[in-house]
Design goal:
The chain is built from eight helices and nine strands. By secondary structure, the protein is α+β, with helices and mostly antiparallel strands.
């Protein structure tokens, strides 16, 4: 029996459409650049859908006491808010992690197009499947990923929370606290931090890790295959 091929999640959404449907999909859209730390979607607001032309965006949920959990990260060329096209979106918030260019779609126009064009509907289905795999990955990587992957996720999660509060991508935690968080030892985490620092993804101070390259950290997490 032939083993299934690995399906990548870096879906260039527009590449799934013909030239005609690509133009129709983008009719009525507007393009804007959003600053890092901007929350572009809140469940209390109107339904929205975007194409992420360039950047990194985080989908997360929160509870009244302030705790948060990431559910997915959106990368360049991906659709953000596909569930709003097919149905109603989950109760999540969407945060711009780095300065990003997004195309805000005409949601009603895209819904009408998806209702009449099978190619558009199929592209949205491919997108939604990739989002499910992304969510599964974030669940699995926390316990099954390599030390580097688990640490990358932990730092990215802490830094995104700090960005909303302080405007900076930084993780305030000691090596021992990071080790406890990812289920490892202080010595192993210190070596992994040294590797990330050598790759110029982070810089460290006592009790503080500054994230310099969040997109590259997110790519380390995305490399975990399920």
């Amino acid at each position: 029996m032939q083993a299934p091929s690995v399906v990548r999640d870096d879906v260039d959404f527009l590449s799934l459409l013909s030239d005609v449907n690509r133009r129709r999909f983008l009719e009525g859209s507007t393009k804007d650049v959003y600053a890092a730390g901007t929350v572009i979607y809140h469940p209390d607001g109107p339904y929205r859908a975007f194409l992420l032309e360039r950047g990194l965006v985080r989908g997360y949920t929160s509870v009244p006491d302030g705790r948060q959990a990431s559910v997915t990260f959106f990368h360049s060329k991906e659709l953000v808010g596909g569930t709003a096209i097919a149905s109603h979106p989950p109760l999540i918030l969407v945060q711009v992690v780095v300065k990003s260019t997004l195309i805000a779609l005409d949601l009603e126009g895209v819904r009408r197009l998806a209702a009449t064009e099978n190619e558009v509907l199929a592209a949205i289905a491919v997108h939604l499947a990739s989002r499910i795999r992304s969510a599964y990955r974030l669940i699995a990587v926390r316990s099954l990923g390599s030390i580097r992957q688990r640490l990358a996720y932990d730092l990215l999660e802490r830094a995104c929370r700090a960005q909303l509060e302080l405007g900076r991508l930084e993780a305030r935690a000691t090596h021992a606290e990071l080790a406890d968080s990812i289920g490892s030892s202080r010595e192993v985490v210190s070596r992994a931090l040294s590797g990330l620092r050598a790759d110029e993804l982070i810089e460290t101070l006592p009790g503080l890790v500054r994230v310099l390259e969040p997109i590259r950290l997110a790519e380390i997490v995305r490399a975990f295959v399920i």
